[in-house]
Amino acid sequence: MPSTREPAASRPDPGPELPEDLDLRALPRPVRAELRGVSERMAHDIGGHLLMAGQLIDSDPELAYQHAMAAKERSPRLPIVREALGEAAYAAEHYDVALTEFRALRRMAGRDDYLAAMADCERALGRPEAALRLVKEGLRAEPDVTALVELRLVEAGARSDLGQTDEAVRLLRDQIAELGAKGPKLARARLRYAYADRLEAQGRTAEAERWFATAAALDADHTTDAEDRVTALQGFTIVYDEDEDDGEPSQVGDEPGDFEPGDSEDGEAEDGEPPPTPDPGAAGQDGGDDS
After folding, report:
1. Could you read off the pLDDT of 181-200 as tens digits, one per residue?
2. Where are the domains of the chain?
């Protein structure tokens, strides 16, 4: 009588062990809805690995990646599985896998949510030109502020990878000026943090201190390490007072083409930082010549 046992080669890799007390009700409702298309046993295994991947992605991204891989082994055609694997692979710095998964998700679901992450994967894989093409595609779609900021961060990184450091600084500065106080605080904090980081890399430490401070003021949940960067640059902890003059060194903003976190045309402030305006000298700094 022929064996009905599934050949070992066709059985999915069991992956990391799942806790016995897993409660799949903790999965988001859209995930549970996608899992209704598979058997109850398979749904339990896939859902368990997805749940563990989501819980571990910040604390142990490599283990989260292994759980997501185990989910894909069981159902590679579910968009939610490809999304989870892409996110976990990205967090664990398996950028080739992440890029493959995000591309697959885009084909399957018709979504452009991960264009910035895809572009960043291209950067990490040593392909800044490909990253810039994806950024351009993302910008054409008129993204919301959060997505726009992420695209600009990758764009600045790709420009720096190509040796275009002044252009990287310019585009971050111009995006800060364009957005002003619009958009979520965390997105604005990340944009200012990236600008400060580029300034510090250019040796413009006094300006970098100020911009790290403005990033910290917007980052109430300490998602970035902006406060630590200020401490490292100044040697003490800054207490950012939104209502008083910050008393920063006078040399900040003295160079042509720079603007300070407190500069604005109308003098009004929000969140301790009014919308900055680019200095007319910026074009000359970035290679143009108005004379």
Report:
1. 999 999 999 999 999 999 99
2. 24-111, 196-246
DSSP per position, 67-93: HHHHHHHH-TT-HHHHHHHHHHHHHTT
162-166 contacts at long range (C-beta below 8 A, 24 or more positions apart): 162/128, 162/129, 165/198, 165/201, 165/202, 166/285, 166/286, 166/287
Tell which residue, 261, 273, 185, has the closest CA to residue 223.
185
Instruction: Name the pTM for this structure.
Output: 0.77
> According to the model, what pLDDT value does residue 288 have?
40
Q: What is the pLDDT of residues 8-54, one digit of tens each?
A: 445 667 789 999 888 889 999 999 999 998 999 999 999 999 999 99
Half-sphere exposure of 84 (CA within 13 A, CB side): 34
Cα 22 → chain centroid: 30
Q: According to the CATH classification, is domain 24-111 in 1.25.40? A: yes
Residue partners of 2: CB distance under 8 A and separation at least 6: none
Instruction: Kindly report which listed range (15-24, 155-164, 229-238) carries the lowest average pLDDT score.
Output: 229-238
Q: Classify each residue of 131-159 as buried b or exposed e, where b means 16 or more C-beta atoms within 10 Å of its C-beta.
A: bbebbeebeeeebeeebbbbbbbbbbbbb
Q: Which of 94, 78, 83 is nearest to 34 (CA)?
A: 78
Closest-CA residue to 182 (of 227, 155, 219, 146): 146
- Tell the residue number behind the tokens 């896998």, with chain if given: 97
